[in-house]
Amino acid sequence: MTTGPVIERRVASPHSSSTRHKRARRGKDALLAWGFLLPSAVVFALFLVYPLGRTVYLSMHGNDIIGRPSRFVGLSHFAEMATPQFGQTLMTTVLFTVGVVVPGVAGALVIVLLLEGVIKGQRFLRGAFALPFAFSVASASVIFSVFYSPGNSVLNGILYRLGMDQVPWLTSQEMALWSVCITTVWMNLGYGVLVLAAGIGSIPKEVNEAARIDGATGPRLAWDVTIPMLGPQLFFLIVISTINALQSFGQIHILTAGGPVGSTTTLVYSIFQDAFAYGTSDFGRASAQALVLLLVVLVCTMVQFGVIERKVHYS
Amino acid sequence: MTTTFRRRGIKAAALIASLGLFLSACSSEDGGAGDADLSAPGPEVLDDLDEAVEIEFWHSMDATNGQVLDGLIEDFNSQNEGRVHVTGSFQGDYDEALAGHRAAIQQGDTAELIMIYDLGTQFMIDSGQTVPAQSFIDADDYDTAPIEEALLNYFTVGGELRSFPFNNSTPLMYINRDAFEEAGLDPDSPPTDLAEIREAAEKLTVTDDDGTVVQYGFGAAVYGWFVEQFMARAAAPYCDNSNGRDGRATEVLFDDPKIVELVEWWDQMIEDDLAVQIGRNTDDGQAAFTSGRAAMTLESTGSLGGFIEQSDFEVGAGYFPLIESGDPGGSIIGGASLWINGVGHSPEEIRGSWEFVQYLLTSEAQSTWHAGTGYLAVNTEGYEGAEAQERAEEFPQFSVAASQLADSEINENTAGCMMGVMSEARVAAEEGWETALTSDTSAEDAMAAAADGVARTIEEYNASVE
Questions:
Q1: Which domain holds residue B196?
Q2: Does the interface predicted TM-score (ipTM) exceed 0.85?
Q3: Cα(B240)–Cα(B224) distance, rounded to whole angstroms?
Q4: Closest residue of B to A65, CA-based?
Q5: Which residues in chain B touch residue A279, judged by CB atoms under 8 angstroms apart?
Q6: Are B437 and B379 within one domain?
Q7: E runs forming strands in chain A
Q8: Do residues B215 and B108 share a domain?
Q9: Which of A175, A210, B176, B215 holds its CA 20 to 30 A away from the CA of B293?
Q10: Looking at the complex, does the CB of residue A175 fall below 8 Å from at least one CB of chain B?
Q11: Is the pLDDT at A252 greater than 60, yes or no?
Q12: Pick the residue with more confidence: A41 or A219?
């Protein structure tokens, strides 16, 4: 809210000769504002408000065999979610998100901080570390599926030559989720490096110099000066990669298809399975889960803004 | 052209609306044979056409198989100039094609002819869009004698043939002949039951000095289709009401002691390092075999061509194994069949599709199809064709599938389960099986829990079509 109109309103007395003129101008302004807003409002309504409304509608209906909403079922799709299986899906979603965000952001930070110490070839190395960002989810997942492939795993081949035990990357319920996490972290690392490298470049030189004069070096400098100064970028990365993790689909679909025994079925994957997989078209149940996902993303983001953003230092 | 199209759209919408009411009134009858208004037009409708009738054919054949199919379509079109013109349209894999067809039904704009996988059969009947294959056969006095009996058996529901078999296969056991010879086993008599597989695997498994396995005896994907096959061979029905043929199925029976035995055996094989743990992805199972990691595997006949091409050892093929020696055997076919859409289509289009299907079922077309793809020749006279003969001479393994099917007794077990939620049931069977392999849950509990889970889905489906 700007103060402009408020002042204007205070100045404009009801008996002033210019009132009519001003009112007319304000009406014209408003019209103009609405005119400018209209295109984005239409797009917003068409691609956000309508689908959301439709999702709510579908979530309260059962489907016929062709997938058309055929009968009103109220909130029973939501009530049906109270199963241990759905609890496991939510738990998997949380584990996956933590397993992707924490190592992803920390890894990017460590790489960027270490690269600060490299003078020669720093730009090249930054570029190299940012490269995974250029891979599409599908191609990265296909490459990792070769690394993990049961029976012919490239990684197991390496472990074998090192005389180490074989790892059931995708075939064990305990391991599969972490294998998918590793792939996702690798894919996200590039973006993290890109964002943090830009952030580190924008820290004023005087700050570092002042700290050095005060005798700070190495880890101390990183912990007390560089990382706080990177606050806005780190906060941005945490929020973005949390939302990304909650919405991950491609790597799960290609690597594990949600298995073994649902151990990598996250909320998004469960929505996909109900709506499209195995010839099902249970859009009602899928829509209900989609609303739960919306709620989860909303709560996560609000908590992050409420808790972390308070500690972020904007210079 | 545009006007007819639009008119067709409106007509289709009206038909679908009325059909919806109609179906809800009559589909509770067993077999759903109530599509009285969908009849087969005679050949006269194609006389005196101003221009060739356009047939859009949705299918799921890509790569090599797609090319062979395109060749057949071209051949048909050149024989029927000015009369019928077919355009093939690849729709993605079977699941995607079925999803696309669902959307097309919603919009009232289905293709004239569609290929739908075996698991979609009950859904196709319940959605009431197609002209039953039997109507064409009856109207034309079409001779089905040369068509493989097991295939007709599979696609016959309620005494009526519902769709035309086309790209069909059965699973086989594949062996690495070189590994068999090295282990002192006879590659010409591959194992025939679980006990024999284990015995052979004990000899085929090779470990290095540290005890790490470098070659496993056995390795196959946890693939629900195999459960269906194993049950048919053990003469155990997959679902109740005689495999859903005497009435709608209400529960699946894959928690049968035979299947529990199979899962326990599988688990023990992995535990004892005789089999490699593959998971559910069949590509991984194929790779384990072609790379020489696993000396025996289970796969569809459709994989034979690829196996021969990709492996650097000699590939052998045998019958799909029995759970126990003495089981009656027999196999269920897999793959897809062709459905002619009636709702929203003119008699000319319906007749045109049937003409094309007749062409595909000729022995000449089937010879080309079998030799090019490895699928069964639906018309058994196709095996005598020049191309099929040439292929059989070069690779005798190609004839194993046909003789396995010929040896198979035709009964309700080998007809396979007919159910609207077959694909979900298959996934549930895989989940139960995989649970037993990857956790402490016993095979018995895991399969029982999986079967119970399907009951709810079946109930929902049956409620929505009755």
A1: 171-330+420-465
A2: no
A3: 18
A4: B464
A5: 95, 98-99, 119-120, 123, 423-424
A6: no
A7: 61-63, 69-72
A8: no
A9: A175
A10: no
A11: yes
A12: A41
